[in-house]
Task: structure prediction
Amino acid sequence: MMSEEFDYAVIGAGSSGCVIANRLVGAGKRVLLLESGPADDDKFIHIPATFVRVIGTKRSWLYQSEPQRGAANRTMWVPQGRTLGGGSSLNAMVYIRGQAEDYDEWADLGCDGWAWRDVLPVFRRCEANTRLVDAWHGNDGPLSVTDTNYRHPLSCGFVAGAQQVGLPYNPDFNGARQAGVGFYQTTTRRGRRGSTAVTYLRPAMTNPNLKVVTQAHVSRVILENGAAVGVAYRIADGSERTARVRDEVILSSGALSTPKILLLSGIGPAQDLAGLGIPVIRNLSGVGQNYQDHLEVPVCGRTRKPISLLGNDRGLKALRHGAQYVLFRSGLLTSNVVESGGFVDTLGSGRPDVQFHVLPVLVGDVGREPIEGHGISINPCFLRPKSRGTVTLRSSDPSAPILFNPNYLSDQDDVDTLVRGVKLARAILRAPALAALLEKELLPGEADHLDDRTLANHVRGFAKTVYHPAGTCRMGKGDDSVVDPKLRVRGVSRLRVADVSIMPKLISGNTNAAAVMIGERCADFILGETV
Ligand SMILES: Cc1cc2nc3c(=O)[nH]c(=O)nc-3n(C[C@H](O)[C@H](O)[C@H](O)COP(=O)(O)OP(=O)(O)OC[C@H]3O[C@@H](n4cnc5c(N)ncnc54)[C@H](O)[C@@H]3O)c2cc1C
Result:
């Protein structure tokens, strides 16, 4: 075993981890950043339209759930990023912050200092928005936020069709109001993905105070006298390494891996740990509890002509698109695929409860036969799930997969919300702007009227993750929280968690911008800085 010493060790070079590493080395700290996956040197990561090709490769995790009773007993797959940039290197680049009420609710739940008025300045500070500079948006941060310069006819058809059924157009989902339909802004820069590896980590890479090790899989945090003093990890050749830290260890391994590392380190529900023969360092009942995710359900239409964004790009066409991209950084390859969408208040509660992710292509799910042919997928997803799941260990072997029971659709309200979203999506498919392009509806079915029971069966049979697992190391005040509002693990000194696992409640929207904000705040807390 070899051991080196640093001021800080950051575990996981994902959306949050890259931000923290950047900020700490920028403040003169010596930082070790450990990433389980390989470098992000795969062109399909950086060309926006090709990110789906990375899912299922060595640069992704594929977490498999236990069979889900609420989802027709299906085993569900949850892909996550496993490379520099983590999820921000694999995601659809949709830039969304959630709703102001989400963060105010966090504060009400005991997360002092996390209300909307506290986090908005951090979102603004992070952001380099190329169109918007106002009370909500900044333009001189590291995180590039841009409009896509390519808009597929089916995305435009959705935005027009949704207005034809009465939904308002919204030019900025992160501004004064979230509700409405339109085109997403994206974390891209000059036609390329702007992951946190590109925007935060790369500029820090030349700093001699930063050591980044890829293919370094952390098995546990080393604890002495109730304090984190280092990390144990395995490198590519299979040998074990340790590193010691003078100051702190920060866990940023994502909502499905951070609780695993805590549990393997002896921090978690005492009974579970004892049952696996892991010595209990700190009994924390909340570790691995409170799992939440957004689920969406496909509503698909087949187009009259072969016009899908993907699967259409062969021979001369592919050459033309490739040349256009290489020469001008424009055209189809700059599409983030999920170009359009929107937010709808289907209950009249005053807050949108459904989001649409619209793809100008027929999409399936991991583990399912692809849907052949050309078409559009309008996927409604619920924004504030009520179902809660768990992440725990199968064994004390760090290489064993987690025991993952997300409890998807265990709360009937989640099914009902998706049914309302499906009804609205079907109405938009039938609006003149889309009907002109479509031959027929493929999913859930062709008939104009489908009863609620049929739609609920469709939801249970087809719902899939939107890749936003969160909440498994929740922040709060009570004994069931894992970290305090400064992200410190309760009862363990010199150990913090900073990634989407700290969310007490999943935000109402995509999670990458929030992960960046959480990373920024963690660095602020460590460095004793305020906004
Ligand atoms: C396919 C996909 C599409 C998505 N689309 C969008 C979108 O369009 N917009 C949006 O806002 N959000 C999107 N998301 C979600 C968003 O990207 C994530 O919520 C966000 O990246 C989570 O950030 P994080 O820092 O919590 O974790 P991650 O970014 O997942 O980082 C965790 C890192 O830790 C590493 N790691 C894990 N275990 C270990 C270990 N034992 N040792 C060392 N390293 C380890 C991982 O490999 C990973 O790199 C998407 C996600 C996916 C997967």
Observations:
- The longest strand covers residues 240-251.
- The mean pLDDT is 96.
- Residues 242 and 357 are 43 Å apart (CA to CA).
- The radius of gyration is 22 Å.
